[in-house]
Amino acid sequence: MKALHFGAGNIGRGFIGKTLSESGFDIIFADLNQDIINLINYYKQYSVKTVGINLHKITDIKKISAINCKDEKIFEQISAVDLITTAVGVNALNSIAIIITKGIILKIKRGSLKTLNIIACENKIKASSFLKEAVLKILPNKYHNYLNQYIGFVDCSIDTIIPSSNHNQSNLLVIAEEFKEWIVNANQFKGIIPKILDMKLSHDLNPFIERKLLTLNTGHAIASYLGLIKQYKTIKEAIQNPKIRMIVKNAMEESGSVLIKRYFFDKHDHLNYIKKIFLRFENNFLSDRLERIGRNPLQKLGSEERLIKPILGSIEYKLPYANLSKGVAAACHYFNCNDLESMKLASLIKEKGIEKTLMHICNFKLNKEAIYCIKKSYYEIIQEMQ
Predict the structure, then answer these.
(1) Same domain for 131 and 238?
(2) Which residues bind NAD(+) (predicted)?
(3) Annotated binding residue 145
């Protein structure tokens, strides 16, 4: 069995690549970073150090190779592999769609009737369905029936923390946390479902997707933006600040109240889930950089994303959202000259003001009360963090 994985970064190598390798797949990594491609092709293996409260384990990942996404040979790989996965970031999915489409066309022209399943492992609700729509927009209509019959786009919820790692010419080591969760929509596979270790099948994925996005990712993002206001560097530094810790905890509980209402989660179990997330944030070996967590703020402020979506849910169920509002306000203060979205956000606020910017970003889905609450927090949050 062969798998093509787009994205040879920390999630790609530390979670997806490791899991697929342990499941018996030969893995081809596709990336734009030629340095990491060269390293993978030279060493043909790398190591993952798994860390937990009482666990330190090294696993060697072998039977791997790499290819540049711009290399035309990648279409050959797409037409021949059994599985495609991605961990490239939401903003890159449209570019990946172009590459996958060309590979599918080659597969069709070769008369291949072998099914192919594609799983986009991104922090986006139904990322694989989004990728499918992007492919269908490019793929000629005459090939749509083939795609619907032989190509599966499988939505998933993926949950783990893998901090950024610096690779060099002799070390591709990745540090990964012991906790990992990969839940997929069993209804979307084509052909035989591949046997992948620890991958759980679900016939109702939405509760798992939202639980992860609106708990872990919501807390992660809010901690990062509040921490960056204090000029902290890592998630552990941020979460150890009592003020930040309290806002993040309360925000996750506000978001959790929405999930409990919507999906009838057990309140006690969900509060324990939040406690476990704090333990993960505090893991010395997983203390990720705040700039990495907070990057692409416009994406994170979308109406279906981790900061605005729980507020919309709070409005729907008439629940409080004061701390979630503080998280949004902190995100609006984020500025990084190396982050184009952060610069665009700052430009929008300067040009339109905070109120019109928020309405524009969230597609006018917030009501006046929520806008007022966020706006008030926007002007207070800097002082509150002092």
Answers:
(1) no
(2) 3-14
(3) no
CA atoms within 13 A on the CB side of 71: 17
| 19 shares its domain with 91 | yes
Q: Does the annotation flag 4 for ligand binding?
A: yes
> Which of 195, 17, 216 is closest to 121 using CA atoms?
17
Angstrom distance (rounded) from CA 133 to CA 97: 9
Q: Which of 203, 220, 250 is the last residue of a domain?
A: 203
Same domain, 251 and 371: yes
Domain match, 176 and 213 both: no
Question: Does 191 count as an annotated binding residue?
Answer: no
Answer yes or no: is 219 a known binding residue: no
Is 293 within any annotated ligand binding site? no
301 is in an annotated binding site: no
pLDDT one digit per residue (tens) for the chain, 386 residues: 999 999 999 999 999 999 999 999 999 999 999 999 999 999 999 999 998 777 688 999 999 999 999 999 999 999 999 999 999 999 999 999 999 999 999 999 999 999 999 999 998 889 999 999 999 999 999 999 999 999 999 999 999 988 776 545 457 899 899 889 999 999 999 999 999 999 999 999 999 999 999 999 999 999 999 999 999 999 999 999 999 999 999 999 999 999 999 999 999 999 999 999 998 898 877 778 999 999 999 999 999 999 999 999 999 999 999 999 999 999 999 999 999 999 999 999 999 999 999 999 998 899 999 999 999 999 999 888 87
Q: Is 11 annotated as a binding residue?
A: yes
User: What is the domain extent for residue 267?
Assistant: 207-384
Residue corresponding to tokens 């952060």? 342
Structure tokens belonging to residue 211:
């639980």
Is residue 5 a known part of a binding site?
Answer: yes
Give the H or E element holding residue 58. strand 56-61
How many domains, the chain? 2
Asked whether residue 3 is marked as a ligand-binding residue, the answer is yes
pTM over 0.85: yes
Distance CA 53, CA 178 (A): 9
Q: CA 3 to CA 83: how far, in whole Å?
A: 5
